[in-house]
Design goal:
By secondary structure, this protein is an alpha/beta fold. 40% of the residues lie in helices and 16% in strands. An eight-stranded parallel beta sheet has the order 1-2-3-4-5-6-7-8. It starts with a strand and ends in a 9-residue tail after the last helix.
Length: 262
């Protein structure tokens, strides 16, 4: 069994499946994908991801505000976030974090929002899903100060080994997406070879970043198979071993997930 540990099911381009989310999920299930984590990115989509998790027994969700969604609406209220997180199918917080690549001018409001999500993690014990880009020092400083017992995951990881190693030392997991298959991603592949087997996750981040051979097309949860197969070959392990290990890792990191009973 595989788990797509990070997908945006409410944003998929479903044209390849005649507009049917059910068909898209079935296509993934037919390739061995047994569970999906649907990610919250804004106050506006919190209800949508919860509804999807309620509709499908193999879907859980997270709730949070993406760093690039903070500036237009402002830092969310902690009580609002805690109320949104108080749902049996919401197993994680985020995605949250820092992105100075696209919006360095909003760094301060991003940091305030990230801190609020980390505060919510301390209250709830739920793991955080971290988006980080061009913000290594600030991301690591905030994570270190938070000292979260359940930690979380740096999703769609694209940074260097130094950052990965620092995050691992703080108890975080590293999740790799289709980017690792891209021809210009050799530095990331070096990181992928080094991540300990028991701290590795796989994801699609669909509908974004489809892996080779689908690069340039809308990404779908079924393509997590390609990510896992590529990583198995890269790391020199059987596909079944990598699939089982990353699924076990997901269950350990997200103890409230219904994937534990799958």
């Amino acid at each position: 069994m595989l788990v797509d540990s990070h997908c945006h099911l409410d944003r998929l381009d479903l044209s390849a499946h005649n507009g049917s989310l059910e068909a898209a999920l079935d296509a993934a299930r037919s390739r061995g994908v047994g569970h999906f984590l649907c990610i919250g990115v804004s106050a506006e989509n919190a209800e949508a991801v919860r509804n999807l998790a309620g509709r499908y027994p193999d879907v859980d969700c997270s709730v949070g505000i993406h760093p690039l969604d903070v500036a237009p609406t402002g830092v969310p209220d902690l009580q609002w976030l805690l109320a949104e997180l108080d749902h049996p199918h919401v197993v994680a917080i985020g995605e949250t974090g820092l992105d100075y690549h696209y919006e360095p001018e909003t760094a301060e409001v991003q940091k305030a929002s990230f801190q609020l999500h980390l505060d919510a993690a301390k209250v709830t014990g739920k793991p955080v899903i971290v988006h980080t880009r061009a913000a290594q020092a600030d991301t690591l400083a905030l994570l270190k100060a938070a000292a979260l017992p359940q930690a979380g995951v740096l999703h769609c990881f694209t940074e260097d080994w130094a950052m990965a190693e620092a995050a691992l030392d703080l108890g975080f997991y590293i999740s790799l997406s289709g980017i690792v298959t891209f021809r210009n991603a050799e530095a990331l592949r070096e990181v992928a070879r080094k991540v300990p087997a028991d701290r590795l996750l796989v994801e699609t981040d669909s509908p974004y970043l489809a892996p080779i051979p689908y690069r340039g097309k809308p990404n779908l949860p079924q393509y997590v198979y390609e990510v896992a197969a590529f990583l198995a070959d890269l790391r020199g392990v059987p596909f079944t071993e990598l699939a089982a290990q990353t699924t076990e890792n997901f269950r350990r990191l997200f103890p409230l997930s219904r994937a534990r009973s799958a």
